[in-house]
Please model this.
Amino acid sequence: MNRPSLQISRAQFRTNIAAVERRIAPSTLMLVMKDDAYGHGLTWAVEDAADAGVAWFGGYDIGTALRIRRALAGPQRILAWATSTDDEVAEALLHDIDLGIGTHEYLRRVIAVAGSLGQRARVHLKIDTGLRRNGVLPAEWNAFVAEARVAEDAGSLELVGVWSHLAEASDAEDDEAQQVFLAGVEAVRRAGGAPELLHLTASAASWWRPELRGSLSRIGAFCYGIRSADGPELEGIRPVATLTASVVRTDDDGDAVLPIGSFDGLPSTLAGIEVGTPAGPRILRRIDATTSVVAGWPGVQSGDPVSVFGPGDQGEQSATTLAERIGTVGEEILTRLTPRVRRTII
Ligand SMILES: *Cc1c(COP(=O)(O)O)cnc(C)c1O
Model:
């Protein structure tokens, strides 16, 4: 059976990056690449982004950060913020990767590993501004900062950044989070630190809340053309990926059978959506384990291309529009697609 294909437009990726950079200037883009560049494939995306001048990459975990480093030829900066093992930390330091640190315990281990390697770790300290997901609570922040400053004076780390992550649930909560964040930055300065990189916002807040942006903006979704679920369209941004499958046969009712199913990561709850066929939009009647069934059209035959989602100019919907139907986000639709879905970079 032929394989479904995720066609990925490098031109659209670059267009999106340029639109994001224009929008957030003078804040600098940190392109977030977790989950294999949100399911798009990491290596080509790193190469293209570096070519387009992107200077900062966000890897989430150190494994991803190392993959980014291998794809880069230049001096671009990479940040990994998942709490990691000592061995991973050592690898990260040897490959010039910045570390995001959100617990005392991790700070102590990073200092110890840096000391044993005779290296200076570049760190970004994370304050919890309300999300309660990795980050030092404001009440413990001063002690945490003091410990980092001692290590900085001793030469085992360099305190280059302060950061946090917003809930993006309401503007009021995000405003409060920013106050906590700025107080945290102030405390670092009072302790003698001079962090030049301040970052608080991801895609949505970077785009819509300029007053919250720091010197860096950590952005994944919008660069891949994934808008926020239940959020508005974004000027100059379109989906990078199009999911297509070719009709493998017609059934007794004249419906078209596609070689993609829930085992390939297409949620069966998406049954009922409209997909793009050569004759225009048609209902996707059913999603089974390895196949799906689309309402037929006059002259339907095997080989006819059907697009399940994409930028929206062939009658198909975006991954986010599909995600909204089942109460999730566009990222989730893309990152669930298994490797059987062939990635074609065009
Ligand atoms: C995933 C992630 C981002 C990027 O979020 P988007 O909404 O995709 O832009 C930024 N910061 C952190 C800490 C993340 O985990």
